[in-house]
Amino acid sequence: MTTPLTVRAISVDEHRDFIASQSSASFLQTPAWAAVKPGWRAESLGWFSGERLVGGALVLYRQLPKVRRYLAYLPEGPVIDWESDDLAAWLAPMAAHLEARGAFAVRMGPPVVTRRWSAEQVKAGVADEAVRRLGDVPPLERTRTGAAVAAQLHELGWRPQAVEGGFAAGQPQFNFVIPLVDEDGKPRSEDDVLKGMNQLWRRNIKKADKEGVHVTRGTRDDLADFHALYAHTAERDHFTPRPLSYFQTMYDALSAEAEGRISLWLARHGGDLVASTIGIRVGTHAWYSYGASSTEKREVRGSNAIQWAMIRDALAQGAEVYDLRGITETLDADDPHVGLIQFKVGTGGEAMEYVGEWDLPLNRALYKAFEVYMKRRS
């Protein structure tokens, strides 16, 4: 690299325009995401080669209790050239900038895939009693970029974060995605995507249509209905729901940033809301972000119908991937999480392992105290 890279704060407009110039970037790295995390101080960063903006990041700062020092967090970022064989040129000026801002440590989640498995491989792993984890199954691919990034981060003093069952402390390390383009990069047809699903998924989509399930795009006013169903789902599935205000803030922030960035979906049967979801799109990447379903009327298959509507919309918008987000690494048929994996595997997509989240301690004493604090909290 002939021109040394420099890092400095950029405006929200510069950051937004940079993200818009990328074919794909995580929605967690958009400047709008800062508004969704009000408990963190946010900063937009830019990497410059001379005067040319060549990289960007949303940095979230969380203050340590009683000390004016911060953990600098870059969820699923930064958006830089991860194929570079000189990551130090990118990461060293970032670390220096964040340390000057009062960071005692940096945590980031490079958007880099290390391994991938086909739906058939995952399904076979669940059926095999000898297989307990996805990592026990030989992958379809081990990526050179993933191996190179991990090796360079180790050399540069970054520390991989512990993962339990596939979920790190921040973002999931294992995701399930449906490619919407073929190996040559040409868009797949609806029929081709549908044929890639298993027989149960295709049958359920047909059943939902036959039963009269009606899927529509919602508006902000429908968030209250989504949230009521989401709270019902949380009680049934034993997780802590986010408040309605969280989704209202998310909807407002992402809607203001770009048209079509966030969408709300509702599946109704006979006037009853049977499923509802939130989708997000940045460039050619579409995500299924949040979902809710009714315990009643599960037989009309609203969840399958609403996913199929979202997939069709992603295809129509030119998306290259439909991301069903996190899965755990477990393939143990007795594990309660395996049902979620089986639901997603039925779409015929691929399981992806990412390089995961990594920490760089800038002040070792404070970082050690932070580790102790986090262990006590958990």
UniProtKB/TrEMBL annotation:
Q: Which PROSITE patterns match?
A: FEMABX
Keywords attached to this entry: Acyltransferase, Cell shape, Cell wall biogenesis/degradation, Peptidoglycan synthesis, Transferase
Q: Which GO terms describe its biological process?
A: cell wall organization; peptidoglycan biosynthetic process; regulation of cell shape
Q: Which GO terms describe its molecular function?
A: aminoacyltransferase activity
Q: Does the keyword Plastid apply?
A: no
Record InterPro entries: Acyl_CoA_acyltransferase, FEMABX, PG_Glycine_Bridge_Synth
* Family (UniProt): Belongs to the FemABX family.
Name it.
Peptidoglycan bridge formation protein FemAB
Task: Give the source species.
Answer: Nocardioides gansuensis
